[in-house]
Design brief:
five-stranded mixed sheet, Dna Topoisomerase Vi A Subunit, Chain: A, domain 2, alpha+beta, DNA primase DNAg catalytic core, N-terminal domain, DNA Primase, Chain A, globular, about 55% helix
């Protein structure tokens, strides 16, 4: 749905954008009659079934069913939310979006200025690293195994050992002290004045998914403490909502359909340099639901690679449940003691890390192994502690079949009664009943009525035909609930005198299966003349009315049988009278 963004703004954007141009910037399109076609970017296929209509400004894949307008393509391909897709196309088409969204313009301007300050700071730190002052820091990075190309890719920099070097540089560029402080780049003195937050440290800029600089991490060049310091949270930088390196990794994550999560900057940079591109870093903090949902835009599969120390294992255990709650598949790689991904790759090579990733443990085996190393699974008390911790995790699994199988496996591993585990998990939270779990794991399938679908196509091709259909049919006359909803929306728009265009209709219909039906209908073979279309419509109307009458008779017939069985004479006579009336009506 359009949500808070005014309809006229969405219409303005879609009237200016060309969906063929948008999609062809991501995948190659070939002309196919009046349309364009390609191999679908959303599922693997050898024969092209992905169609794009320049006339209707929509796309549809006959293989996987993905469909929609330009907004929907960006949402699906770039894993954007609807407002993000609208903002992207608004900028592309020159539509002023912020003025029509009633946003807080003060906040918008502050954020814009903070990005600008950070961009200037990134350049300042990069220049330092590449100057004569940065030679020792550059040599340190090269000694750590980083190449010049990698240093440039991650825009690494240097804060020199001076109290006000960045501060003065930004002031020369007319950046106020208050704005520098708001960006977290300088700190106020108790005695008055300010000084640079980062000094004599290597700088790791942190970017958002759009490659805009949010903040910075800074590492010492020696063994002094603290080893790392980071930017404080600012209006644009919230640590729990971002992941280091995601701007560079997102395409590889989508292509490989899994993401590798490590902890620190160099734990990411070294494997990335050696070709492991689907990798992000959690910046040394426990993963948050926002970070997990951010990754979920690109894949459902996660491999966590952490140190083998006790603290790392406990942090990993705490993160696992977040993935389960988001219905993502997570596996874990445990490195040898004393190694992190950075040192492991430099010593054993990237091939060894890739092999460990292939052999990563699933969450059940990993957590059970860690718990069995802490508690004696041969003793009663140990079994109770292990099972309690495992059940807290298993209880979060929404798929009833998976949860049931893991309960069975846990009972076997601990040599305890499965019924006892079932009783314990019910104490945490009652297991969803069979009907509910069936609804969760069963996807609704549809068999489209060709007559109803043809009417949809005709109404979309010629809006003038809508009133002809509206005079003879009601939305309730359509048996397919999706088509009934589409017809209802079209009737409402027609009554308001609004033009009905497929590219705009996508913003009203909501659910993917309804959007899919609209697009699929439009790619049906063309009807010929207007006269022929009117005859087709009349035939369709007669067919739908006949089908509805037939269904009504079948329903009455069942009711009559029930009334006869119950001996309800009054109801029986009423139903028979209604049944005879329907026969005469036909």
């Amino acid at each position: 749905m359009a949500g808070r963004i005014p309809e006229n703004i969405l219409e303005d954007i879609l009237s200016r954008v060309d969906i063929v141009e948008v999609i062809s910037s991501y995948i190659p399109l070939k002309k196919a009659g009046r349309n364009f076609k390609a191999n679908c970017p959303f599922h693997h296929e050898k024969t092209p079934s992905f169609m794009v209509s320049s006339d209707r400004q929509i796309f549809h894949c006959f293989g996987c069913g993905e469909s929609g307008n330009a907004f929907k393509f960006l949402m699906r391909y770039e894993r954007m939310e609807f407002p993000e897709a609208v903002e992207t196309l608004a900028k592309k088409t020159g539509v002023l979006l912020s003025e029509n969204q009633k946003q807080d313009h003060v906040s918008v301007n502050i954020n814009t200025n903070l990005f600008k300050v950070n961009e200037l700071s990134v350049s300042f730190y990069e220049n330092n690293l590449n100057s004569s002052l940065g030679k020792p820091a550059k040599e340190y990075l090269l000694k750590r195994g980083l190449s010049e190309e990698t240093i440039n890719t991650f825009k690494l920099g240097l804060a020199i050992e001076k109290w006000d070097s960045l501060l003065n540089s930004l002031r020369l560029k007319s950046i106020s002290l208050s704005m520098q402080e708001k960006a977290g780049l300088i700190i106020s003195k108790e005695t008055g004045g300010y000084y640079d937050r980062f000094r004599n440290r290597i700088i790791f800029p942190i970017f958002d998914i759009k490659s805009r600089p949010l903040g910075f991490g800074a590492r010492v060049l020696d063994n002094s403490l603290p080893k790392y310091i980071n930017s404080p949270e600012t209006p644009i930088y919230i640590k729990g909502k971002n992941l280091y390196g995601l701007n560079l990794a997102k395409d590889s994550i989508r292509e490989d359909d899994f993401v590798i999560i490590v902890e620190g900057y160099l734990d990411l940079i070294i494997p990335y340099q050696h070709g492991l591109r689907n990798i992000v870093a959690s910046l040394g903090t426990a993963l948050t639901p926002d970070q997990v949902r951010l990754l979920k835009r690109f894949t459902q599969n996660v491999v966590m690679v952490y140190d083998a120390d006790a603290a790392g294992e406990l942090a990993t255990l705490r993160s696992l449940d977040i993935f389960i709650e988001e219905e993502m598949e997570v596996r874990i790689v445990t490195l040898p003691k004393g190694f992190d991904p950075d040192t492991f790759v430099r010593k054993d090579g990237i091939a060894s890390l890739r092999e460990r990733i292939k052999q990563a443990e699933n969450l059940f085996d990993y957590k059970l192994r860690i718990l069995e190393s802490r508690f004696n699974s041969k003793e009663i008390e140990g079994k109770a502690k292990i099972s309690n911790s495992m059940l807290e995790t298993l209880n979060k699994i929404k798929n009833a079949v998976l949860r049931s199988e893991y309960l069975k496996k846990l009972a076997q591993e601990l040599d305890v009664n499965e019924d006892a585990l079932l009783q314990e998990i019910n104490k945490i939270k009652p297991i969803t009943n069979y009907a509910d779990s069936r609804n969760q794991i069963t996807r609704k399938t549809f068999k489209t009525n060709p007559t109803e679908q043809l009417l949809i196509k005709l109404m979309l091709e010629e809006s003038g035909l809508i009133h002809r259909i509206k005079d003879n049919l009601e939305p309730a006359d359509f048996q397919d609930e999706r088509i009934s909803r589409i017809v209802s929306i079209m009737f409402d728009l027609a009554s308001q005198g609004k033009a009905i265009e497929p590219k705009m209709l996508m913003n009203y219909v909501g659910e993917d299966d309804v959007s899919e039906l609209v697009c699929e209908s439009l790619f049906l073979p063309e009807e010929s003349s207007g006269i022929h279309k009117e005859k087709v419509i009349d035939d369709c109307i007669k067919r739908l009315k006949s089908d509805k009458l037939k269904l009504k008779k079948q329903h009455l017939h069942e009711q009559i049988k029930t009334a006869q069985h119950l001996g309800d004479e009054e109801t029986l006579n009423s139903l028979i009278e209604e049944f005879h009336y329907l026969i005469k009506k036909r």
